[in-house]
Amino acid sequence: MKRMPDRHETWAWLAAWLEQHWPTIYAGLLALVIAGLRVIYGGGTLRRMVIEAPLCGVLALAVSHGLSLVGIPASTAPFFGGVIGLLGVEGTRAAAKRLFTRKVDQL
């Protein structure tokens, strides 16, 4: 079996990339785990957990990239990932809809 060549610059690049993007990655993973556990705890089916948990993780990734647009530091991404995992996709969608409706009504 062939061994992967030991390339120090590749490992250094990967470590630097992970260090720079860790809050975002952590937010996505945290949302995924919390959503999965929430569905299991609530008596949901395996199908629902397999669909809901990755959706929450991807939603948390998207939100964490938009935090800087509204002046929130990227280091708070894990907090928002946890909240998204706890609320779920439907709860997050309802909260976002209320927020955007309120902002549109103020215009």
Brief account:
The chain has one domain.
Comma- or semicolon-separated keywords:
107 residues, mainly alpha, 79% helix
Describe, in plain words, how this protein is organized in 3D.
Helix content is 79%, strand content 0%. With 107 residues, it is an all-alpha fold. The chain has one domain (23-106). Helix 1 crosses helix 2, helix 1 packs across helix 3 and helix 2 (46-66) crosses helix 3. The chain is flat and about 60 Å long.
Compile the SSE list and pairings:
Blueprint: H1 8-41, H2 46-66, H3 77-106
Helix pairs in contact: 1-2, 1-3, 2-3
Number of strands: 0
Strand content: under 5%
Give the SSE order as H and E letters: HHH
What is the averaged pLDDT score? 92
Number of domains: 1
- Tally of separate helices: 3
Radius of gyration: 18 Å
Q: Give the biggest beta sheet.
A: none
CA distance, first residue to last residue: 65 Å
